[in-house]
Automatic annotation (TrEMBL), chains A, B:
PANTHER family: AMINOTRANSFERASE, KYNURENINE_ALPHA-AMINOADIPATE AMINOTRANSFERASE, MITOCHONDRIAL. CDD domains: AAT_like. One of its GO terms (molecular function) is transaminase activity. It comes from Arcobacter roscoffensis. This is PLP-dependent aminotransferase family protein. Keywords: Aminotransferase, Pyridoxal phosphate, Transferase. Residues 37-354 form the Aminotransferase class I/classII large domain. InterPro entries: Aminotransferase_I/II_large, Class-I_PLP-dep_aminotransf, PyrdxlP-dep_Trfase, PyrdxlP-dep_Trfase_major, PyrdxlP-dep_Trfase_small.
Length: 383, 383
């Protein structure tokens, strides 16, 4: 096994911490918002059909694929039919499926999603990165696959605007490159004003979606949207990986969508998340005025910059039972003084307490720096 | 994508056929035997805990891993603790996880399981095969991984006896090779007299297990049993593939095992399968006396030999709405006049009807051969 392959920093943190910790580290949705009762009802109905316990097709349940296709048509202005949807075991599985089917190098945004980077590394893919669209063109060719999170990017929280989307799609097509566009946060738009994916105007595109952030992640159901000729290439790979995504889980979502208005539920989540984000942002402004950030317009994170070594900061915080993510882990090979803070999976009380802990640690670090400076200054004076 | 990568013959058949067909092709368990009511109860209980819908650990649920470890201790005489079990999304996923962690060529039995072969091919692994244990030693070294199904092999239905298991474990250790031992059918022993896995005495071994054949496959929960130091190498790979196996599905099995005696259920399945196997065997003896086979002592298939081109036979049968599998697909690159017949997923009526259809096709083929022979004979006489 490559020495490069280390377990992800975040997973290692999550393994260590327990209920005594305040965690801003993971990307866990607020489980109080799970439509538990509705899922229970959908599950009882799904289990009435014995087929829910039997093997099923690698492609995925047709009725569920039809409903997912309708999200694209009705909500994203992106005409799609059920043959253009492949069900995956969570969106994470899409990387492995797609990158076994196409033989390309990978180009990622910097910073980027850790789970994607891990998947690319396990597959021994050559990874390049870009931070500005203007520098991207030089990296693209017909042996490249660009990986983007277009909406409320993890970790940076930024989204591409309409002009950028046009520039990107033209650039990708001109270079005959592939695009993997990760739509994990597309529907977590606090204004419920969903943007059309870049993929719509890209010839060789894979758009990834998931029920994890908008319903519940524990069922592990996601999907790939691509044109039929590309889906055909993925089917055999998907089959070789796990035969198919759990039948019961697909039928639960299918039943859930039969009985409920998903987009009403999404509005409910977005309202809750926006309020929590604003509360955390207010705490940051109040307790850590030196923290430079913009309030995100969607997603699950606040991302910003501090004047210190944030890896060191995260390690000290962990000893004080607070978990945060130093942004260094989201870069290929670069130091960073940014941090990522998740606001969805803590209570209001935990958010305020956590930010206070962070503020105190920063004060201590500042005091220590000052004391080191004074010692050096004194010794210089004495010398 | 490699041109070698074609969708599996069996999946293609399964895509074509509908309820009008009699299918001896798949490896589907009898869904009438699923403990549906017990799974419904376990699911209701599991869903009471909101954690069932949340992300969970890549390792898998600890309480479930403990129960699986106890199967090894109590039923297979193979001391195992929960740290030696990694939960997978079906047993199929184990191939991908393990073979990304170890860089070896693969040695398979011939014939072998199609799903494993597909996985090895997608990973571009070099595959060698052996048909006799005596020829295996020359193929093994410390860059080899041997893949075996020790009990009621798919498709051949044969098992290794105690002496062979000893010879194999010594041979594998001596060559410092890896072993992947597939236990998919281990508990489908009609005498409920489960054999200790070869893995017990192999230093670098992975033993694969699954709930698919003994409870229900639609939930996609399997596992890898290996020593802790090997499991540690697999964790990061598992995480990169799908983060973790569906939380709910793990909790359903955990609850199911809390409330039910799994091995009583297994005895019930085995009694049913043995009866069905004997019925199909009796039909074969009666209608196709030329079919050479041995009655299997476990598993889900009857395997045997005919005096004809069985790929041609299977294609003719498919036109008459009967699906069987010509054994050619189970070999790396070899013709075969064997066929595999699944008996678990058809009714008694379908079994008799299907064997009669097969018998009639064989008579037609024989008549045709005879008529061609006579035509040639006549023309020779005339000449």
């Amino acid at each position: 096994m490559s020495s490069k392959i280390k377990r992800s920093y975040i997973r290692e943190i999550l393994d260590v911490i327990d209920d005594d910790y305040i965690s801003f580290a993971g990307g866990l949705p607020n489980e109080e918002l799970f439509p538990k009762k509705q899922i229970q009802e959908a599950t009882v109905k799904a289990l009435e059909n014995t087929k829910s316990l039997q093997y099923s097709s690698s492609y995925g349940l047709e009725t569920l694929r039809k409903k997912i296709a309708s999200f694209y048509c009705d909500k994203l202005d992106f005409p799609t039919n059920e043959e253009e949807i492949l069900i995956t075991s969570g969106s994470q599985q899409a990387f492995d499926i797609i990158l076994k089917a196409i033989d390309t190098k990978i180009i990622v945004e910097e910073p980027s999603y850790l789970g994607a980077l891990a998947s690319f590394r396990v597959l021994n893919k050559k990874i390049n990165s870009f931070s500005k669209i203007s520098s991207l063109n030089a990296l693209l060719d017909n042996k490249s696959c660009l990986y983007l999170i277009s909406d409320f990017q993890n970790p940076s929280t930024s989204s591409y605007n309409c002009t950028q989307r046009q520039v990107l799609s033209k650039m990708i097509n001109k270079n005959c490159s592939f695009l993997i566009e990760d739509g994990a946060y597309t529907f977590l738009d606090f204004e419920n004003n969903f943007k059309t994916p870049i993929s719509k105007n890209v010839e060789k595109s894979f758009h990834l979606g998931s029920f994890s952030k908008i319903v519940a992640p524990g069922l592990r159901v996601g999907w790939i949207r691509a044109k039929k000729s590309l889906i055909d290439k993925l089917l055999f790979i998907k089959e070789s990986l796990d035969l198919h995504t759990a039948t019961l889980n697909q039928m639960i979502f299918d039943e859930y969508l039969n009985r409920n208005n998903l987009f009403e539920h999404i509005e409910f989540i977005n309202a809750n998340y926006q309020e929590k984000m604003n509360f955390m942002a207010d705490c940051l402004v109040k307790y850590i005025p030196s923290f430079k950030f913009e309030r995100p317009k969607g997603g699950m994170f606040i991302y910003g910059k501090l004047n210190c070594d944030t890896m060191n900061l995260a390690n000290i915080a962990l000893k004080q039972k607070l978990a945060i993510v130093p942004a260094e882990v989201f870069y290929l090979n670069k130091k960073s003084n940014e941090i990522r803070l998740n606001f969805t999976n803590s209570t209001y009380g935990e958010i305020e307490d956590g930010i206070k802990i962070l503020a105190n640690i920063l004060k201590e670090i500042k005091k220590e720096k000052r004391s080191i400076f004074l010692t050096i200054f004194d010794s210089l004076k004495a010398g």
